[in-house]
Amino acid sequence: MSHSHADVLVVGLGPAGAAAAAVAAALGLSVLAVERRAEIGVPVQCAEWIPAPLGAYAQADGVSAQKILGMRTCLPSGAVFRSEARGLMIDRARFDQALAATAERAGARLALSTRLAGLDPGACAARIAGLRSEREIRFRWLIAADGPHSSVAHALGLKPLETVHARQYTVALNERDQDTSIWLSGDYPGGYAWLFPKGSVANIGLGVDKRFARDLKRPLDALHRRLVEEGRVRPGIMSRTGGMIPVGGLRERLVVGSVLLVGDAAGLTHPVSGAGIAAAVISGERAGEAVAQAARGAPEVALAAFEEDVRDQFETTLARAVVRRKELERCWGRDLAQRDDVHRRGWIAFPEYFAEGPSIP
Ligand SMILES: Cc1cc2nc3c(=O)[nH]c(=O)nc-3n(C[C@H](O)[C@H](O)[C@H](O)COP(=O)(O)OP(=O)(O)OC[C@H]3O[C@@H](n4cnc5c(N)ncnc54)[C@H](O)[C@@H]3O)c2cc1C
Predict the structure, then answer these.
(1) pTM, whole model, 2 decimals?
(2) Residues with Cβ < 8 Å from 359, sequence gap 6 or more?
(3) 203 and 304 assigned to the same domain
(4) CB 288 near ligand 1, within 6 Å
């Protein structure tokens, strides 16, 4: 088995890993980023919405698909509440590829079809496996950007993250739209259903907590049928996808020895909305800066500052969302799950979500 060395080994080239690799390489470190997929971002496992401030990362050709102005939230009674939610629909594969290209231009080495196959954190050594060979990499720091089922976290003995399961179809729209639609109901326990318009098509999908509902296909087919009957979308399904979304909030530790956890691997996805691209990019960049600072001296201080900064930025928001999820957990499978007031308390668009005071009955 051959051996090599990098200052920074990045595992996973989603938005978090690519952002980390780009910054660490731009700040002068030698970076090797490994990605088990053969093509970055493919297959897409995403509804493809990003908040407006992340538009700065969606400038490459073909990344931005359309603007989103608002969100229509549909409650169990049929009441609809519109709120402003400015953002963009993106081509997620191209978004991830553009971030990875930035990392490569900054000097990072990218290895596709290459996975982390073993880790000895104490020795700062990893075994990586390509299609034909395995090799050992010695690193000074490892950035774990390997998503909701992080194999790095597993190798470190960290707890698996709580997740919801999501399933999604891409369908043709009858009329273009500039708002996303969200459905809250007892039919989607632990999650919600969505329609995100993207030019002439839309991503329709849903997420549920498998402890409360095992079947995702039937409710998604029912949503699709209803949207066809209402004349919003066409019957054919153009593509199907799905995936896991971490919903348990931030991990207890974001730094373990020389390993920094970022993005979904760190539990940074919003436990109520499921949005995680922005947090992935921000935490990835911050990790890239932290390892560059660590290389200049006082590594413990640099890594502790990374953890503190990420917590300062995200912990309050994520902790509130975890509380709201727990409140809703008591309602699934009961009449309460069809009450508008219960969902207003549990969904980010409503003032009740941010109110202090007694929880859902
Ligand atoms: C159906 C669905 C819809 C979503 N919609 C949205 C949305 O509209 N907006 C939003 O903001 N968020 C959305 N999310 C969440 C969002 O996709 C994630 O938060 C985001 O991808 C996190 O980025 P990441 O870089 O941390 O992880 P990922 O994007 O998951 O990247 C991790 C990478 O690591 C690689 N990897 C894993 N293990 C290894 C290994 N052992 N070796 C090498 N490589 C490895 C994987 O192949 C992957 O490419 C959605 C998620 C799902 C499942």
Answers:
(1) 0.97
(2) 323, 327, 345
(3) no
(4) no
